[in-house]
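FYI - complex with iron/sulfur cluster, inputs then prediction.
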Amino acid sequence: MTNLDFSGGYDLPIAGRPVKTVETIGVSNTMSVSAIDLHGLKPIMDKQEGEEVRAGEALFHDKNDARIKIISPYNAVVKEIRRAERRLLIEVVLEVKDKTPNKVIEPVNLEKIKEEELVQALLKTGLWRLIRQLPFNIVADPEKRPKDIYVSCIDNEPLYPDLNFVLKDRIKDLALGVQLMKKLTRGQVFLASAPSESEIPAGLREIPGAHHIHAVSRYPSGNPQLQCYWVSPLRKNDVAWHVNPQDLLAIVDTLRSGILCEDRVITVCGTGISNRRYVKAPLGSPLSTLLGKESTDGMRILAGGVLTGRQLKADGFSGLYQHSVQVLPEGYEREFLRFMRPGSDKPSYSRVFLSSLFGGSEYAMNTSINGEERACVQCGACEEVCPTEILPQFLFKAALANDVEAVQELGILDCSNCGLCTYVCPSKIDLDGIIKTSANEILKEGLV
Ligand code: SF4
Ligand code: SF4
């Protein structure tokens, strides 16, 4: 067992929490399969608009490894292929023709399955995409084996699902999932849980075969990149993998039954809506179903949280890895940066607002950042809050100068993309966005 504490981190006291009752939502008439969330994948389409697709057939695959394919969970027709600038594939929208669950593989014996059979089963079912590699947070390479695998049962990004609540009746299956992951590494399977024994589900900390991490609750302690940095750092050319516990349960359920499990428990919340709750729904569910009759005029909708989420249009769908849909009122003082960052009425990290005198309050934030980007004033707030000992104020400058050597020396590969440096910066510099763009360039050019 390892206790994990770290310097930096910060809990954003944002209002708009969901109530802890789970509403179950089935498959909608229109569903989406996300491509934009699959970092590092170069999608090649296997189906075109108007074509029929059967459950288990590939919709698209990775240009670099055709075995990594993304399958259709349903018998459906490809209704729309959504792309962004430079034909970047965002998602494939399906018109579902048959909502009954579909068998996509023969059931496997989870206790007896061998390493190579497991890899093949995950590739065949398209579930391989749920396993991601550190650094870069990209879809894992089936040819490599990781130093360690992380399963983090803490998700403390603001307003994300409480995993103690979500996982409480699934500990036995989670233990099976850990045994599966052990077949894929000669190293450790690290299982992280929250610090308080009273909060975590019975049996979680006794799951055999895992190396247990007891982490402090401060954001972003649930982040696998942060856990890797503090618990078992990577040497040059090492990789680690991570898989979300809900995704691991979907792997267990699918391989055991042969029927593709797409359901996840997500939060639908934020101060922009009133019906804030937990929802069990298939991945890629339409916002029209998740948000129901809520008006989203003048609102910003996010797949994910306010620190790391991506913006959705009103006709969008829930994301692949982001187990939260959050709605916040727009602040119209200034058009927002690349991504969401809560601003007005914000609590004061730097204690410049009165709010800093009143601890424990939660704030109904909107999307305004209250000002323009200015030059760095060397206040050190980003360095103070960074949970992986990076100096973001130097790293972002090296990134803007395209100095590949300097950004690596400054620890760009340790960045957990927690978004805190951007949030606290009084000069409104999108540090996290600049660092992410630089990391993507390094990945694209193969410069590590
Ligand atoms: S550099 Fe910024 S985004 Fe990266 S870990 Fe540090 S605070 Fe988080
Ligand atoms: S928080 Fe912003 S202004 Fe302060 S040192 Fe970091 S980059 Fe500079």
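The chain is about 20% helix and 20% strand. The pocket of iron/sulfur cluster (ligand 1) is lined by residues 385-388, 390, 392, 415-421, 431-432, 435 (CB under 6 Å).
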